[in-house]
Amino acid sequence: MTDIVEIHVTCPSLLDAREIAGKLLDEKLAACCNIPVKEIDSRFWWQGKRQRQDEWRLAVKTRADLFEACAAAIRAAHPYETPAIFGFRVDFVDAATAAWVEEVCRKP
Amino acid sequence: MTDIVEIHVTCPSLLDAREIAGKLLDEKLAACCNIPVKEIDSRFWWQGKRQRQDEWRLAVKTRADLFEACAAAIRAAHPYETPAIFGFRVDFVDAATAAWVEEVCRKP
Amino acid sequence: MTDIVEIHVTCPSLLDAREIAGKLLDEKLAACCNIPVKEIDSRFWWQGKRQRQDEWRLAVKTRADLFEACAAAIRAAHPYETPAIFGFRVDFVDAATAAWVEEVCRKP
Fold first, then answer.
1. What is the pLDDT of residue A86?
2. Residue B90 lies in a domain
3. Residue B91 domain-assigned?
4. How many structural domains is chain A composed of?
5. Chain A nearest C-alpha distance from B18 (Å)
6. Mean pLDDT on A83-107
C-alpha cells in the first residue's frame, strides 16, 4: 500500500477537464493529471432515468491525505452539481515516483 | 474503503461493449458504464500463443456486493467464452456519489 | 483481494508503449497489456515547473509478486529516466481469469 491515490472524475468536455486539471496543479493538489483526449460513451441512471452522454475522464495522481481537499476543489470547479469523484489507492509504486508525488503536492 | 467497485472487461467491438452496458443498466446491476470510444491495442498470451487484437474497454461502477451477479451477466452477454473480468474496489468517494450508487443499484 | 495487479505507466509514444508491452510479454512478466491508441493529455509538476505532454498509457495485468520484476523491466526499456509506475491490486476476479493470469506469467 502507498500514500498515493488516483482520483477519477468525468467532465462534459475536454476543456472542462483541462481547466479542472490546471486548477488542481496550480494549488499543488495534484502531482499529475491525465486526460484521454478522445471522449467516453457514458451511460448511467440519473434521477430515475437512463441517460447517455459523451464525457471526458480526468485522472489525478495525488497524496491520499489530499483526497478531501482535491474533491472539494473539483466540486468548486466542475460544471455538474454533483460530479462523481472516485479515488483508487495505489498499492505498488517505485521509490522514485513515490518521492516525486510526496514532494510536489502540498501538505494537507 | 467504500462499498463500490469498478469492473473492467474488454470487448471485441464498441457495439458489444454498448450492448453489455445496456443490459447491466437494464437489470440495475450498474449505476454507470463508461466506454472510451477509441479502441485499445490489446496484446496477451492465450492458449500458448502471443495474440494481438483491437478491443474496447467497458468500465462499470456498481455496488461491491453485486460483483458476482454483474460478472455473471457480463459472461452471459459477452461474445468471448472467457471474458476477463477484473474488479477494483473504490477506496475514496464523496458522500453524494456513494449515496447515488447505493440508491440506483438493485439489492443483491 | 486477488494475486493480480494492474500496472500503469505512461510513455512518450504509442510505439514505445508497444515495445515495452512486447518485452514484458516476451519475458512472461505480463498476461496481457492494453494500450489505448489515442493519446492522453498529461499535465504535471516536474523539476519545479508545470509541464504538458502527449503520452500513451500502457496497462499491464500480471501477478502481484511480479511487480518489482515488471517495474525493473519497464525501467530498462523506457525512454524516461524515471518513468512513473503505479500498481493497482485487483480486488475481484472470476476464477477462469485468475487461473489464466496465474498460468501464463512466469514464477517470480
1. 98
2. no
3. no
4. 1
5. 8
6. 96
* Higher-confidence position of A82 and B41: B41
Q: How much of chain B exceeds pLDDT 90, in percent? A: 95
What is the per-residue pLDDT for C108?
80
Structural domain boundaries, residue C14: 4-104
Closest Cα to residue A17, out of C40, B36, C34?
Answer: C40
Distance from CA of A107 to the nearest CA of C (A): 15
Q: How many contacts (CB atoms, under 8 Å) link A and B?
A: 78
Q: Which of B39, B45, B89 sits opposite C91 (nearest CB)?
A: B89
Q: Match 462534459 to its residue by C-alpha cell.
A: A12
Report the amino acid identity of residue A8.
Answer: H
Q: What is the CATH number of the domain that holds A17?
A: 3.30.70.120
The chain B residues in contact with chain A (CB within 8 A) are 4, 6, 14, 18, 21-22, 25, 28, 31-38, 61, 88, 90-94, 96-97, 100, 104
pLDDT reported for residue A108 = 80
Residue A45 pLDDT more than 90? yes
Nearest CB to B43; choose among C28, C32, C92: C32
Over range B57-86, report the average pLDDT.
97
Please calculate the CA angle C46-C33-B47 and round it to the nearest 5 degrees.
Answer: 165
Strands (E), B1-108: 4-11, 32-36, 40-46, 49-63, 85-89, 92-93
